C-alpha cells in the first residue's frame, strides 16, 4: 500500500514542510532528532479512544434518535411537544388534528366567556377556547403546505 513520491507529490511536499517547521521550532537540524516517536504526534492524532460518538456511529444510531433531539419546540396552542409546523404554527398532533377537523367539518362550538387556559392536560375540556386560541395564534387553512398532502385533501 506504499505509494511513491511521484504518485502523490503534493502530500509529500506538505509532510516535508511540516518536518521543516518542526525542525525550526525544536532547533534541531535532523528531521527526527530529539522527537519521541513512541507517542502519537500532533499530525497523527488517535481518535479511536475519544468519548464522543463519531459521525458514523451517529448515523448508525438511526433516524429516530437523531430526530428526537432535533425538534424541541413546544406546541403554541397547548404546550405539548410540537410535531411540526402545521397550518402556519408549531403544533402538536392533537392540536393539528383538532384544527383540521374543525375546519373540514365546519364545526361551531358553544360560546365560552371564561377565556379558558389551554394546556396539554386540559386541552379537550373547552373546544371553543381551544379553537379561538388556534385562530389567535395564526393557524389558518390557507397556511397549508400543499406539496405535502394527498391530492384529494387539496380540494
From TrEMBL:
Keyword match Transmembrane: no
Top-level taxon in the UniProt lineage: Eukaryota
Annotated spans, Disordered: 1-51
Residue runs in coiled coils: none
Claim: DNA-binding is one of the keywords in the record: yes
GO molecular function, one term: nuclear receptor activity
Limits of the Nuclear receptor domain: 72-146
GO BP: cell differentiation; fatty acid metabolic process; hormone-mediated signaling pathway; negative regulation of cholesterol storage; negative regulation of inflammatory response; positive regulation of fatty acid metabolic process; positive regulation of transcription by RNA polymerase II
Comp. bias intervals (Basic and acidic residues): 1-11
Keywords tagged on the record: Activator, DNA-binding, Metal-binding, Nucleus, Receptor, Transcription, Transcription regulation, Zinc, Zinc-finger
Family membership noted in the UniProt record: Belongs to the nuclear hormone receptor family. NR1 subfamily.
PANTHER family documented for this protein: NUCLEAR HORMONE RECEPTOR, PEROXISOME PROLIFERATOR-ACTIVATED RECEPTOR DELTA
Protein name per UniProt: Nuclear receptor domain-containing protein
Organism listed in the record: Micrurus surinamensis
Organism phylogeny: Eukaryota, Metazoa, Chordata, Craniata, Vertebrata
Amino acid at each position: 500500500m506504499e505509494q511513491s513520491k511521484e504518485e502523490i507529490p503534493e502530500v509529500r511536499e506538505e509532510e516535508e514542510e511540516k518536518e521543516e517547521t518542526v525542525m525550526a521550532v525544536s532547533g534541531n537540524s535532523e528531521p527526527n532528532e530529539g522527537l519521541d516517536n513512541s507517542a502519537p504526534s500532533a499530525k497523527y492524532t488517535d481518535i479511536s479512544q475519544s468519548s464522543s460518538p463519531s459521525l458514523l456511529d451517529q448515523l448508525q444510531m438511526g433516524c429516530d434518535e437523531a430526530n428526537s433531539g432535533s425538534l424541541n419546540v413546544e406546541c403554541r396552542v397547548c404546550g405539548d411537544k410540537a410535531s411540526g409546523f402545521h397550518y402556519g404554527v408549531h403544533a402538536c398532533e392533537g392540536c393539528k388534528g383538532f384544527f383540521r377537523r374543525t375546519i373540514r367539518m365546519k364545526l361551531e362550538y358553544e360560546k365560552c366567556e371564561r377565556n379558558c387556559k389551554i394546556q396539554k392536560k386540559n386541552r379537550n375540556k373547552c373546544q371553543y377556547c381551544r379553537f379561538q386560541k388556534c385562530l389567535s395564534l395564526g393557524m389558518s387553512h390557507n397556511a397549508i403546505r400543499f406539496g405535502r398532502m394527498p391530492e384529494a385533501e387539496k380540494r
